[in-house]
Specification:
Bound molecules: zinc ion
Number of strands: 9
Distance between the termini: 73 Å
Helix content: 25-40%
Strand content: 15-25%
Length: 160
């Protein structure tokens, strides 16, 4: 891959570089993209390929790649794709093929919440079973039944 082009410019707090084009300001990498590849389609964002391929860069405002304006490193992607590729929490999560307990995210086992995060159905049902078991034990198990400070029935072992 060709090296990054860090032509100096006015670096903003978020790490991107602003440049003046005639009488307006534009983001350097967006401008470089349009110069080389034509207009950015509506709904698309310009993604830094050099950043994506550098696994040591955690991104954010300290990411040096945001200042890169090498057109070969720039790719127009939809906003959703950009976030999916991202190294942030959401990006990592959406690339996972299994839940934290190792169940595969298949279409039938995956419940997509309104905020877009995925919930493992198998974990959901296991949690429900564990909850019922705790409830049953609290009601009929050995030992002495009592209510805790929140009013939930629990059991404590009787001293033998
Ligand atoms: Zn670059
Ligand atoms: Zn980076
Ligand atoms: Zn699971």
């Amino acid at each position: 891959m060709t090296p990054c082009d860090y032509t100096p410019g006015r670096r903003m707090k978020n790490g991107y570089v602003k440049i003046r084009i005639g009488d307006r300001w534009d983001l350097a990498h967006r401008f470089a993209y349009e110069e080389a590849h034509g207009p950015i389609p509506v709904g698309f964002e310009v993604d830094h390929v050099c950043h994506n391929s550098d696994s040591s860069c955690t991104g954010g405002s300290l990411c040096p790649h945001r200042a890169c304006r090498n057109p070969d490193h720039l790719e127009a992607v939809t906003g959703a794709e950009n976030r999916r590729r991202g190294k942030g929490f959401a990006g990592r999560r959406s690339r996972q093929t299994h839940c934290i307990h190792g169940h595969e995210f298949t279409p039938t086992n995956t419940h997509v919440r309104a905020n877009g995060t995925r919930q493992c159905r198998r974990c959901d049902s296991l949690r429900a079973v564990a909850y019922k078991k705790r409830r049953r034990l609290a009601e009929k198990g050995p030992g002495e039944r009592y209510r805790d400070e929140r009013g939930v029935f629990r059991r404590r072992e009787l001293p033998s």
